[in-house]
Write a structure and sequence with these properties.
The two termini are 47 Å apart. The longest helix is centred in the middle third of the chain and has 56 residues, at 119-174. This protein has helices spanning 16-35, 41-53, 61-79, 100-105, 119-174, 204-212, 292-297, 341-354; strands at residues 7-8, 11-12, 216-221, 228-232, 255-257, 269-273, 300-305, 311-321, 369-376, 382-390. It is an alpha+beta fold.
Length: 392
């Protein structure tokens, strides 16, 4: 197959792998269009909800363009005053009524009377009825147990979800508070990376939170999203996969900085990990950046370390994987420090080639980067990644 033939949906792809991903996306899009009428507001909102919840996962710009198309259609409906609530309140075509006289004309068989049968037959009928009743009770009991287990699972899931939401709302309220601050404590006495460099004072805004948990390393916030969380760091990348800020078991986990990164002196690239939760918490909304329109509307990311405030601008958005050590491919999660300009430019070129769209933002050697990483369920060991450049 020639390079000219690696085209899907009017887009040309450089590699066979990218082309095949686009073909898979096109098949998904064709299936969606065969099932849903995109001119019907009710069906369009239903499809948009499915896309938002991750029912359909796209792997290429072909899928991203379709996602953007649906997003724009929804925005157009909103401008016309058509919402998800009133989309279905249109005049419905009534179904033909069944002639009542025909229903009355149908003969209903009268149930047979048990007394009409002889004693042997009555015994067999009663025995069969008891068996049926026993089966019915067993089915009811089994269904009840399954229902209890399901409700229990969802109850636990939403308990953690609600608890996490409440906990982080309370933590956000402690930013800037001096409720727990030791007034005699002005510098950080805990550091993942031992260094001879004198660490600066912790920002007043984070002193109270730091007193609650000295694993705090910063705070991440993206306006107009649920992402407004403390960022933790330990000597490994395991603990905060299933623990919250209060060090309680929590399947939501916490956002955490890669253990090999340093906020002071700052690594070239700070990598923050978080779970892709279906509730939307942690990095559950991060994949919204697959839509270019969303990326433009949420291009600024605030990440304060406990030592200084910083703002970053989104530069690259891409999908990747966790590879084995033997595979000789670009591994974004290993890019923490660039030892030379050549090495830095090589990293930038790799990410630019993988990016789902062009943001117009570029970086040069000496710039500081921030990488947000979460799971991507569209592929095995998949990861969804947003890379931003510090602008102030």
């Amino acid at each position: 197959m020639t390079a000219d033939s690696l085209t899907v949906g009017g887009k040309r792809f450089r590699t066979r792998a990218d082309y095949e991903a686009a073909v898979r996306d096109q098949k998904k899009i064709d299936t969606i269009k065969s099932r849903a009428n995109l001119n019907d507001p009710k069906q369009l909102y239903a499809l948009f909800k499915e896309l938002q919840s991750g029912v359909y996962q796209f792997e290429s710009p072909v899928g991203t363009d379709f996602d953007d198309e649906i997003y724009e259609k929804i925005e157009e409906l909103k401008r016309k005053g058509i919402t998800a609530e009133n989309a279905g309140k249109t005049v419905k075509t009534h179904k033909s009524k069944v002639d009542k006289t025909e229903k009355k004309a149908k003969k209903i068989k009268k149930p047979a009377n048990l007394a009409d049968y002889d004693q042997d037959m009555q015994k067999q009928i009663l025995l069969e009825l008891k068996k049926q009743e026993k089966r019915r009770k067993m089915i009811v009991i089994f269904a009840s147990v399954v229902a209890v287990l399901c409700f229990g699972y969802f109850g636990i899931y939403y308990f953690f979800s609600i608890r996490t939401s409440m906990d982080y709302s309370q933590l956000a309220a402690l930013k800037g508070s001096d409720a727990l601050t030791d007034t005699n404590h002005t510098s950080n006495d805990f550091a993942i990376h031992k260094t001879s460099v004198m660490l600066p004072d912790i920002l007043d805004e984070y002193k109270t939170l730091y007193e609650k948990n000295k694993k705090l390393i910063g705070w991440l916030k993206i306006d107009d999203t649920i992402i407004d969380y403390p960022v933790m760091q330990t000597s490994n990348n395991e603990y905060y996969l299933d623990h919250n800020f209060n060090q309680e078991y929590d399947k939501n986990g916490s956002l955490f900085l890669d253990c090999d990164c340093s906020v002071y002196p700052a690594s070239t690239n700070l990598i923050i990990y978080g779970h892709h939760m279906k509730s939307g918490q942690m990095f559950g909304q991060l994949q919204q950046y697959a839509k270019e329109s969303y990326g433009k509307a949420h291009s600024l990311i605030q990440f304060d370390s406990i030592y200084e405030e910083a703002t970053y601008q989104v530069m690259y958005v891409f999908r990747s994987q966790v590879y084995s050590e033997e595979e000789l491919v670009f591994k974004y999660y290993q890019f923490i420090n660039a030892n030379s300009e050549e090495e830095f430019n090589s990293y930038m070129k790799e990410m630019e080639a993988m990016s789902l769209y062009d943001t117009g933002v570029t970086a040069g050697y000496g710039d500081s980067l921030l990488t947000l990483s979460t799971c991507d369920y569209s592929q095995e060991d998949g990861r969804f990644v947003v890379v931003a450049k510090r602008i102030k």
